[in-house]
Design a protein that fits this description.
The chain is mainly alpha-helical and 238 residues long. 46% of the residues lie in helices and 2% in strands. It has a two-stranded antiparallel sheet with strand order 1-2.
Amino acid sequence: MTAESVEQKTAYPYMSPSVWTSLRRVFFKQVPSKVSLTYLSSILSITEKTAKNILPQMRNVGLIDQDGVPTDLAQDFRFEETYPKVCDTILESLYPLEVREIFPSPDADPAAVANWFMRHSKSGQASANVVAKFYLHLVAKEPLPEDVKPRTPRAAKQKSKPAAPAKSEPEKVTEKADIPAESFAPVQPQPNGHPHPVAQQHSGPSLHVDLQVHIDSSASADQIDAIFASMAKHLYGR
């Protein structure tokens, strides 16, 4: 049976890509022994009235026979390796060569594809839009969504070691140097009676101390010597 005769006797598949993908999900897990209205309403969460519209479309594309039994095409329908072949089989058997040559890519304008089906199937715009979307979905041969593919165990990710904290340099503590108390130079008495500090070499500032001693004019020489001896004792520790 050629595609041209199919065009005259059979309507183009009328199914949304979402329903088609849902069927692939279910068939991927397990192909049923028979597809019925109750089966479709259960797996798709739809009413049996809606299922009546899907069941003949599954027969139309060749997934099930007239009794609802899945075909060999349904077996290939579930696997990624053979799914493109399933799409090609449906396209070649149900769609004219003309539309396949005019719109060979899934990037074709959906409106232009729908217009083609409106002219050749004498359908309304709403129906033609659904037919066009399903046609482009078959042309795309999109793989099954990741959420139902067999997942290959991923290698355990190496736990990245936490970055070592930056070594904080020890806080530099400026130690206060023990500054010795200023040592004052001993004061040596001068002949004029005014003690004079002896200069010492040190890093600190020098200190100059003038002492005035008032001696009574009536003091004897021994008393004066005793006074200076006492001063020397206190100043020099002698």
